[in-house]
Structure formats: structure tokens, C-alpha cells
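thoughts on my protein:
***
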Amino acid sequence: MTNQKHQFDASPVLVEELAPALRLSLRVKPARRAALGQALGLDLPARVGSRAAANGVEALCLGPDEWLIVAPEGTDLAAPARAVYADAPHSLVDISDREITLRLSGPAVLDLLAACCPRDVRAMPVGSAARTVFDSATVVLWRDGPADFRMDIWRSFAPHVRSLVAQVRQEIAAGL
């Protein structure tokens, strides 16, 4: 997920729209989590906010029986999941077209996120992720490094979130 689609002008926060990716919403009972994870080739994390990665596939635990799976476009995870369905009944839904991802990075990224996100992003450990809100839009925020985040946004909210990000970036740049 490091390929960028567009990049906006430089400032204390760099904003990049990442290339499309396969996104799957997975629901499976906790007792069947390990079997399904094995079929998908990674250990599905059990703790909400925890992430796991293997072979270019990332899994984020969003709830006790809910995961977001992200992989490069063209990855086939449906076939291995289907192969274990009898032993691990589950719901696996392709939500790839529903969202876009922005990478937000730079020395003022925590200030930008704090301006519109009620979650204490400074307290999010590197390597964690969470479903939260950015202003009024539900987003998934991935903390990839101390000053490096990804934000998954529903396409319908993307213009609103981009506008807020641009406004806050201008305010941060003016304050420097």
C-alpha cells in the first residue's frame, strides 16, 4: 500500500492519496478466527485495534468478531476463505470500492489529526489502528510510524475530509 496516486504540495503535513487496494470486511466467530486466519495466511489479531501482516496482507481487528483485511489489488483471498467455510462459517465482503486511503505524514501530523479527531492520536501506539471519526466522517486510522498515518475514508465523505485536511494544513502552515 505504498504506491501513491496523487501527492499534494509540501507542508508540515504531507498528504498522499494511495493507490486502490483490495479491502475486505470479515466477520467470523472468535472460536473460528484461527482456522480462517490460517486459510488466509495470517494470524487474525484477537485484540481490538491490533494489526497483523503477512505476505502483503494486513488485518485489523475492529471488534470481537470483525476484521478489516487490506491487500494489493488482484489478491485472491475469497478462494482460500471459501475452502474452509464448512469449518469456519464467516462473512467476507469486498468493500474495495467503498473507500479511499490518504497517507498523512510529517512533523505536524499529530496536530492536524487532533484538530478534527476526538481520539487521542498521540496515545495510539505505532502499529495500531482504530475506527474513529474525523469531524463527522467515520474513518479507520492506521498508525504506521511516529509521524506516519493512513486514513481510510468512505468515498462519499472524501471531499469533506479533504477539505478539512486542506484547511487545517493551511492553518498549521500559517502558524509556523
Remarks:
- The two ends are 31 Å apart (CA to CA).
